Amino acid sequence: MSSAKAWYLIAYNGLSASAWFSLLLQILISLSEYGYTSTYTKVGIYVQWVQTLAVLEILHSVTGIVRAPLFTTLMQVASRLFLVHGIVAQFPQEAAIENPFYTSMLLAWSVTEAVRYNFFVRTLSAQIGGREMSRDDGVDALLTWLRYNTFFVLYPVGIGSEIMCIWRAMGGMKSLARGNVGTSEDGMYGLAWWGCVIVLCVYVPGSWILYTYMMAQRRKVAKGDSSANKKRSKKIR
Predict the structure, then answer these.
(1) How large is the angle between the packed helices 55-63 and 39-53, nearest 10 degrees?
(2) Phi and psi, residue 150, nearest 5°
(3) Which of 66, 129, 189, 195 is an S-S bond match for 177, by CB 3.0 to 4.6 Å?
(4) Cα distance between residue 168 and residue 140, in whole Å
(5) For the ranges 18-32, 64-78, 138-152, 183-197, the one whose mean pLDDT is highest
(6) Cβ atoms within 10 Å, residue 28
């Protein structure tokens, strides 16, 4: 990777890490003062901007700047854009304000992304410095552990919360369809409801693909650590 690409990716990942960590702090402060019902009014618009920035990751994958698989990148970014723009922004009362799962979804997202982007910054910085991530370095070891272990909990929490946000919004769609029987809006909300049914049907297999991808990445890292330990043992002998 050229130094120009590396510095660009460090800047992008650093900005994203700061944005998601800022979101995490805002949510925690809002929760402590007002409870989950205030989350959307406090950070809803901010979430839209931060998540939309991730569209660049699709471009990174398409152009080969990063080696991330296009399909999994596209699936994750598209599903989140659908949630923040197509679900929450259109049905904020049902999907977010009256829904504690909106807050749990954002907490899972923000912790996951703050860790992920910081890990990428650290990895790229190491590459520029002519070294690899090392388990002997405390920061490297911590970020690597967080990156490849927290998803065991955060992915199910995030995915489950996403499903509940869609489900709550579907209730709003059904109510609006009933209130506009015989009008064009009746058909529009009915179509949107069935669209969400289709989305939910593909959510489980789609989520499993993302989860197993992370499991595969974790195994690669574990193999790398094992090989490094064997080399270290030989040197000691």
Answers:
(1) 20
(2) -65, -25
(3) 189
(4) 40
(5) 18-32
(6) 12
Helix or strand (DSSP H, E) at 57 = helix 55-63
Phi, psi of 181 (to 5 degrees): -60, 135
Q: Are 121 and 10 in contact (CB under 8 A)?
A: yes
DSSP string of 113-135? Answer: HHHHHHHHHHHHHHHHTT----T
Question: Is this structure's pTM higher than 0.90?
Answer: no
State in Å, rounded, how far the first CA of the chain is from the last one.
35
Res 151 pLDDT > 70: yes
155 is catalytic: yes
Q: Which two tokens stand for residue 165?
A: 């946000």
- Lowest-pLDDT range, 101-115, 171-185, 205-219? 171-185
Question: What is the C-alpha to C-alpha distance for residues 166 and 91, in angstroms, rounded to an integer?
Answer: 10
**Cα distance between residue 151 and residue 214, in whole Å:** 8
Please state the rounded mean pLDDT for residues 153-177: 93
Per the CB < 8 A criterion, the answer to whether 117 and 20 are in contact is: yes
Q: Which of 8, 155, 203, 211 is catalytic?
A: 155
> Which among 167, 23, 197, 157 has a CA at the least distance from the CA of 98?
167
Is 94 a known active-site residue?
no
